[in-house]
């Protein structure tokens, strides 16, 4: 089995699965939000807050956030291993992506937490 | 290996077949969305912060420039989603043939174009 220390799950098959499972979560969350906005064209702050105050919506948002981190990591990792051949450059790019995704995670948790 | 085999790696002289074009666009849209998440998180945070914050976001998004950016992000999202669904269908063995690949790529582009127009009407 080919392994690579920067793989998300230490194996390509695991990454493949993470990519697909997270894709399903993200697709469901995207459609959920888009449909909500479509059926509430004149949305106000109260209605918007009501949506995110529901426990399951907050849970769904956190799940989508975690799925996003995994999904984006596998995607950015794939891009970096395909196009960035010098190891230092690849390492810096992957480190930068990790940092950005970490910030997204903390930021997103803070948003859900402060509702 | 035959060292005299013809090699053409000048990408500017290679015309991408449609499935290759939709594939690289899937990747490009993913990269763009990676950056756009910051914008979406900012909008979510401000809109949920207070009634005033929500009103500010509403004013901000009524501007033509902001609307265009949101439309572009949503188009990327829709493209990535549609191309992703096609990917999952191919994972379970649907449309794996050469002809299926071409049809799938055409369908992805057609569906995205249609949804992009609908999104445009919805936003304006």
Helices and strands in order, then pairings?
The complex is a heterodimer of chains A (115) and B (124).
Chain A: H1 12-39, H2 45-53, H3 55-83, H4 87-113
Helix pairs in contact in A: 1-3, 3-4
Chain B: H1 18-49, H2 51-62, H3 64-91, H4 98-123
Keywords summarizing the entry:
heterodimer, A: 115 residues, mainly alpha, 3 helical TM bundles of succinate and fumarate reductases, 0% strand, B: 4 helices, 79% helix, elongated
Estimate the helix proportion of chain B, in percent.
over 70%
Number of strands of chain B: 0
Characterize the main sheet of chain A: none
Any idea of the CATH topology of chain B?
Answer: 3 helical TM bundles of succinate and fumarate reductases
The class by helix and strand makeup of chain B works out as mainly alpha
Q: Assign the CATH superfamily of chain B.
A: Fumarate reductase/succinate dehydrogenase, transmembrane subunit
Number of domains of chain A: 1
Q: Helix content range of the residues of chain A, please?
A: over 70%
The CATH class of chain A is identified as: Mainly Alpha
Oligomeric category = heterodimer
Number of E-state strands of chain A? 0
- Give the CA-based shape of chain B: elongated
Description of the structure:
The complex is a heterodimer of chains A (115) and B (124). The mean pLDDT of chain A is 93. Chain A has helices at residues 12-39, 45-53, 55-83, 87-113. The longest helix of chain A has 29 residues, at 55-83. Chain A is mostly helical. Chain A is 81% helix and 0% strand. Chain A has a single domain (12-113), classed as 3 helical TM bundles of succinate and fumarate reductases. Chain B is mostly helical. Chain B has a single domain, classed as Fumarate reductase/succinate dehydrogenase, transmembrane subunit (3 helical TM bundles of succinate and fumarate reductases). Chain B is built from 4 helices and no strands. Chain B has helices at 18-49, 51-62, 64-91, 98-123. The longest helix of chain B has 32 residues, at 18-49. The model of chain B has no long low-confidence stretch (mean pLDDT 93). The A-B interface holds A 20, 23-24, 27, 30, 38, 44-46, 48-49, 52, 68, 72, 75-76, 79, 97, 100, 104, 107-108, 110-111, 114-115 and B 27, 30-31, 34, 37-38, 41, 44-45, 47-51, 54-55, 77, 81, 84-85, 88, 91, 122.
């Amino acid at each position: 089995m080919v392994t690579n220390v920067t793989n998300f799950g230490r194996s390509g098959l695991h990454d493949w699965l993470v990519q697909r499972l997270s894709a399903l979560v993200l697709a469901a969350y995207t459609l959920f939000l888009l449909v909500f906005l479509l059926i509430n064209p004149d949305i106000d702050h109260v209605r918007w807050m009501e949506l995110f105050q529901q426990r399951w919506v907050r849970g769904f948002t956190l799940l989508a956030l975690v799925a996003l981190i995994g999904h984006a990591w596998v995607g950015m990792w794939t891009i970096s291993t395909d196009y960035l051949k010098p190891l230092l450059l690849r390492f810096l790019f992957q480190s930068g992506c990790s940092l950005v995704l970490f910030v997204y995670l903390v930021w997103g948790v803070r948003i859900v937490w402060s509702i | 290996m035959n060292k005299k085999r013809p090699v053409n790696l000048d990408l500017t002289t290679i015309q991408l077949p449609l499935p290759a074009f939709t594939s690289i666009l899937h990747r490009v849209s993913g990269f763009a969305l990676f950056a756009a998440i910051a914008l979406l998180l900012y909008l979510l945070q401000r809109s949920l912060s207070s009634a005033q914050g929500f009103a500010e976001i509403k004013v901000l998004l009524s501007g033509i420039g902001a609307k265009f950016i949101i439309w572009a992000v949503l188009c990327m999202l829709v493209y990535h989603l549609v191309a992703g669904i096609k990917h999952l269908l191919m994972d379970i063995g649907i449309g794996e043939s050469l002809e299926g690949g071409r049809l799938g790529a055409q369908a992805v582009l057609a569906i995205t174009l249609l949804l992009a127009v609908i999104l445009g009407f919805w936003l304006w």
